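Hello,

Our lab assistant flagged a job as stuck in the queue for most of the afternoon. It eventually completed. Since we weren't sure the result was trustworthy after the delay, we are filing this so someone can double-check. Below is the sequence as submitted and the structure that was eventually returned. Let us know if re-running is recommended.
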Amino acid sequence: MERNKRFTKLLTVLLTVLICLSLVGCKKDDGKTSKDGSKAVSISVMVWDRGNAAPGTTTEDNGLTQWIKEQVKELYNIDVEYKAVPRSESDNKLNIMMTGGSAPDIVFTYDQNIFMNYANSGALADLTEVYAQYGTDIEKYCGAAQSVGNIGDKKYAVLKQRGTEAPRHVAYVRKDWCDQLDMGIPSTKEELGQYLYAVKENKLGGDNTIPWGMSGRADTEKMYLNFLGSYVDLKGEKDAYIYSEAYMAIAPGSKEGLKQLNTWYNDGLITQDFPTDTSEDVFMADIANGKVGFLLDDVYHPFDSFAVLNTNLGYETFVPVQPFDLPDGSYRTPFEPRHGMYVMIPASASEEVVEACMKYLNWMADPEIATKIRYTPDYVLNDLGVAVEPSAEEKEAKGYPGTCDDLGIVNNDFKWANDYDVLAKTEYLAQATPWASLEWYQNFYKVREIGKYRYPVYSYVSESEQTYGADIKSRMIEFVYRSICAPAGQFEEVYENGYKELVNAGLQLILDSRAEYYDSLNK
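-- returned structure --
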């Protein structure tokens, strides 16, 4: 009897094993189950390589990537592998990988045209359902940025939410020179012109004084865009969309702004050979050497030169300023949109991989997790409750990458990100060289908020813009530079010839398609 029982028990075990082997759900689990009971899934994630990995580590394998891997493995049983892409050629490399079928499971770009091309060609996974199921923290903490990842009623990208709200560009003026000239800080373009001529006449920067310093970067409109935009009267959201933002240089009214810059250039108020300074080395040196009286630039870009100048002189010089009054006397300071990069999953990913990718991204949306990625898992808070950026030496000692933020691709909106008083105090205390006072930083945040404005953004790029947009934007910068530098008396000819070239290259097709799309939304 006992022998029969043992035989029956053994037979039951064998049958159970055979049944499990015949079912997909009972296949062998090579890894332990996670806290949520998930089975092991492997995903690959794109990461930028900036060449600043700590000694003995790589962009793909370092202290921070290992920490992230451990967390998602324990929580979701997801095995993460990173695939490095050079930052300087990120989009080109992404296109090659997507075309060749070798892209990681999570990829990203800041370029809306690239996102739209992928989405409309069927190259991206539809994230609508998986986002609704597993993207709850993304929606909770980064929901303000998500709409532009949708096309119609389907979602094709998770958008990284920016942190501190910041203007696209900021103007700076030498306050000490304003004081020396017994002038107030210019608050209009007319006052700015008076200041620029006075700086030149009085040679406040020496024999080689440059009242308005410019560089010749060929990939950005930062040197002139806010100024030209101040001549444009946007009559409503439709105009704002049509001419947002790369097309502002040819919006109705902007020609008068270009003509004014051309006059100032020929009068010697603007850096004479600025288009040749494509690396900005001369521009930055001129600021640091005290030759420049005014400039328009990216928000933080000139700070290093300000620090050198202030340290050498022993007092504060440049201050932020908003002198670009609109036709009605108000101001318009374009701000960055709330969304940053488009984070996408290729359509070739399996359903279980898409689900795992969404869990990975949703995990990163949590502000505490985002803080640990951005400031390292060992981060500390200062007395103001702000995470302290570790030094390069501290990062290297623990094997963390030089740019930890590259791994945090979902959320930069930390709890202190838009507390300007706290940010001012933090930046003041964080100065390596005390080149600016606390009051300077407080004024910096106050001035840059004047006329805060965001251009409307839609999840749409017309076929015309996909075809001609990148070329037009490059040509537009060249067109503006040529117009500014046109010899005296030749502005009209240079402007008209340049504008015709833009139209022939597809400009009008783009403008018309933007108008048509806006009208289609507002019938």
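-- support follow-up --
The delay was a queue issue, not a problem with the job. The result is valid. The longest strand covers residues 41-49. The two ends are 86 Å apart (CA to CA).
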